[in-house]
Amino acid sequence: MEKRTIGILFGGASSEHDVSLMSATSVLENIDREKYDVIMVGITRDGRWMRYTGDVKKLIDHSWEEDSGNLPAFLSPDRSVHGLVTVRDGQMEITRLDAVFPVMHGRFAEDGSMQGLCDLAGIPCVGPGVCSSAICMDKEYTHIVLDAAGIKTSDWFCVRKGEVPSLLDLEVKIAVKLGGFPVFVKPCNAGSSVGVSKVKTSDDLEEAMMLAFQHDQKILIERAMVGKEVEVAVMGNDSPEASVHVGEIVPKLEFYDYNSKYYDDTADLYLPARISDEETQLIRQTAVKAFKALGCRGLARVDFFLLPDGSCVLNEPNTLPGFTKISMYPKLFIDSGLSYPEIIDRLITLAIEAQ
Ligand SMILES: Nc1ncnc2c1ncn2[C@@H]1O[C@H](COP(=O)(O)OP(=O)(O)O)[C@@H](O)[C@H]1O
Ligand SMILES: [Mg+2]
User: Fold this and answer.
1) Is the pLDDT of residue 135 over 80?
2) For the ATP-grasp domain, which residue ranges apply (predicted)?
3) pLDDT value, residue 72
4) Nearest C-alpha to atom 19 of ligand 1 is from which residue?
5) Which of 46, 92, 54, 99 lies closest to 73 in space, CA to CA?
6) What percent of the chain has pLDDT over 70?
């Protein structure tokens, strides 16, 4: 088979820049180089694009940014280019790409913007398309679509910057709509638990809202769910399938926060989750139903709370989930029998097939 040229994008101007560096390092170290010619494009935290040809090991500590071989580069929206434009000695050099894999998370990566750029360019992009990515990124719209599809989520309401009710009104709303404290306060558009707080009393509400507003103009206040936190991986286009097993997260602190996700071991992971077969099937089926309702294609990791009565509540879909070898998405499919390079290969193939 002819070798394909794949653009791997990493970094990005999002609060999950560092997470992307970890995910991309794994993908770059494991992608099948017999099948794919890899073109690396790094995006700095302030949004500068560079073609990178250095050592993959230089991603993690950000030293790739200083590499002397870096050249300005950008994805052209021009379909006749169908790829990357690199500026070398004032001259434009074109590299045709068969597909793009944005190994990036959060804003400007997972929210439809990168997918839109690839659409304009006519280049297949790994993961869901523009509309689905945008809906899954925005926790308010995710809730609305899932509610309409009859998939249970936790009770919620949104607060917009500039329209913040008084503390008293908020307390009433929390009591009436969410059954009182504790609640979770989160930015509608973020990820990796950035800006998320668990709030136990109204005394801590304002601070949590201010933190969430640092990341978005719109925040979500949600009923705190008590149950097991479980995650399942879905892959496919027209006939998506869930991983055989479900993974379980047991945060040792109040919740699964940024540090426990990436830096310390304040969360235990169980694969398979310590749940019954019926519960596993319920999670798998609900994940596929949500995947379809949200218009996803390619991949998504769908996160749930499994309640003590055996029912499930969908927490959130992640359309470009963490992708290190020890991240839940790849782990779930490795557990289902695929190798990590095969997972990457399948996702790229699905993107090309969806075009
Ligand atoms: N409604 C909730 N009830 C209980 N725990 C929650 C709730 N919402 C969030 N959490 C906890 O906070 C973590 C991060 O919240 P999440 O909505 O997944 O945001 P992010 O998109 O940043 O991952 C979850 O993994 C979970 O541990
Ligand atoms: Mg999450």
Assistant:
1) yes
2) 143-349
3) 98
4) 193
5) 92
6) 100
